[in-house]
Amino acid sequence: MKKALAITHVAFEDPASLTTVLRESDFALETVDACTANFNLLDPTAPDLVVVMGGPIGVYERQSYPFLNAEVDWVARRIASGKPIVGLCLGAQLMAAALSASVHPGKNGKEIGWFPVFPAKDAALYPEWKHLFATPVRPLHWHGDTFDLPEGVHHIAFSAQYQNQAFAKGPKVLGIQCHPEVTATGLERWYVGHACELAHAGIDVAELRSAGRVYAPQLEAAGRLFWKEWLAGAFAE
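Structure (tokenized):
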């Protein structure tokens, strides 16, 4: 059985629908809390797969959250190992920083809600993305920060509000700004955990939940196909 390690920053932002695909693909999933982890004792090459999850802080807030320094270094060593890693939202931003790209507050405001993503110039190299680009699929977006594309990566996806939604470096390194992993049920914890952010942004929880009832099941079905195909490519001989 292969080992997958999920690095979380808040408990309610977990691998969600990806968890089911991992179990069906013969992975044992372990979770580590980045905020309290000792990254010096965590071998970045040991897991077969690393999944770096999202969270409400910025990569550039290292003075307030010093663990980010160790986490970025750890992610950089994981990428350098050549073993599979995927980052979601903050996870993608950490990967961008580990690849020496800038991560910063977005100039177009917060992107929170269910919006489509579109193929960028290198999307054809990653055919599994057809499931997330398909109409009427809409991934969930929940971020205010963005990142510059690191040098030497492929640009896969963009949205109407932010240009850099996904990048990859070969079949094993994938950063995704949006959230293809969420489920309607699991998002109930997000609405509570991010209540202050939603109120500050003037977003109505009832409307967000109502949209989720429409788009979450479609995303879960598309995400299942997407994850299975990405894993197959990442672990191809």
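The first strand starts at residue 2 and ends at 8. The chain has a mean pLDDT of 98.
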